[in-house]
Design brief:
This protein has 335 residues and is an alpha/beta fold. The protein has 2 domains: 93 residues, no CATH class; 194 residues, Rossmann fold, CATH 3.40.50. A 5-stranded parallel sheet has the order 4-5-6-3-7, with helices on both faces. Helix 6 runs parallel beside helix 7 and helix 10 runs parallel beside helix 12. The two termini are 54 Å apart. The C terminus is likely disordered.
């Protein structure tokens, strides 16, 4: 799973904070113990000395067997004396030794060169928080998506808006519940305020819970980042936006079509969509534009890709966000 440089840097800082905090806390307690009981510090030095002498003796092989056994007995005796002093001061080994958040990797993030599960969990958590912070809503869920704002009136024998949206909701719920690296692509289209972003974020939340790396953003954010990194001369620029868009396990591109148009951004967006189709990486795209309008904006090649490789869902109804605002005003008591 690949995350942005920002996510890795933030995770590394957190792992370092955990490790240093555990070590500093233990050292503080140990220093206080030595100050109250100087004898304990002398015992600690003698314990270290016997361990070192035993290690050197072991290198000599069989002739040093008796010496090693004697040093072991001496070491155990010293350890007992040290523990007795701890107990006399109402302390245990845990009080003077680092209590790492993860005992497996001791908050280094790695075990024998392999990433520890605690580090993977932290990366997912940070990605989740980042997703929440950049989204135009709080991180949405399926549970807080309401169909009551969609009309249940059927016109000319056609499905009502509510029934259409129920079908879309159920499809998205199933997509999220069964999400995996082989899941298909979704294209949400329809007017603003109908729930496209809400359901996109609900799917993202479920995918992250399953441990998948999700990149979410609106087309404007991606376009600005791509343009900036294209011309950036500074070493501070991560320059990883394009790589993330191409390689993340789930890409959610919101509001396609509202970004400022340029030949570079248009060709890059097409390239990302095409690359992810070729590599079979799931993508969710939402737009206020119809397929015909997308074709006019980006060209026939992109529209053809959307028709051939995306499940299209046409959101309908009246602006839900506006209805919620109106309802909240009505429900608010006036003084």
């Amino acid at each position: 799973m690949k995350y942005s440089t920002q996510v890795y840097n933030k995770a590394e800082k957190e792992m370092n904070r955990r490790r240093v905090t555990a070590q500093d806390t233990a050292q503080h307690h140990l220093d206080a113990f030595y100050a109250a009981c100087p004898e304990a510090q002398d015992l600690r030095w003698r314990i270290a000395s016997t361990a070192s002498r035993a290690a050197r003796a072991a290198l000599r092989g069989a002739p040093a067997h008796k010496m090693i056994e004697s040093l072991k007995e001496e070491n155990l005796s010293l350890q007992k004396q040290f523990n007795d002093l701890l107990a006399a001061h109402n302390l245990t080994r845990a009080d003077i030794e680092p209590q790492y958040t993860c005992k497996k990797c001791e908050d280094t993030g790695y075990i024998d060169g392999h990433m520890c599960s605690c580090y993977r969990t932290l990366l997912q958590q940070i990605a989740y928080e980042n997703l929440n912070s950049i989204s135009p809503l709080t991180l949405s869920s399926f549970e807080d998506f309401s169909l009551k704002y969609y009309s249940d009136v059927s016109v000319d024998g056609k499905r009502s808006d509510r029934e259409t949206m129920r079908i879309i909701f159920d499809y998205c719920r199933h997509y999220a519940d069964t999400f995996n690296s082989n899941s298909g692509n979704l294209f949400f289209t329809g007017a603003t305020g109908l729930g496209k972003t809400h359901l996109s974020l609900a799917i993202a939340a479920e995918a992250i819970k399953k441990g998948f790396g999700v990149v979410y953003g609106n087309a404007i954010t991606f376009a600005v980042a791509l343009e900036r990194e294209r011309f950036a001369q500074s070493e501070d620029s991560n320059g990883d936006t394009l790589s993330l868009l191409n390689t993340c396990e789930l890409l959610i591109m919101d509001d396609l079509g509202v970004e400022a148009s340029s030949n570079y951004v248009t060709s890059t967006i097409y390239s990302v969509i095409d690359t992810r189709i070729i590599t079979k990486k799931p993508t969710i795209i939402s737009s206020n534009l119809s397929l015909q309008e997308l074709e006019k904006r980006y060209g026939a090649r992109l529209a053809s890709r959307m028709v051939g490789f995306y499940d299209r869902m046409v959101f309908c109804g009246k602006d839900v966000r506006m209805q919620r605002k109106l309802n909240s005003r009505i429900d608010t008591p006036h003084s």
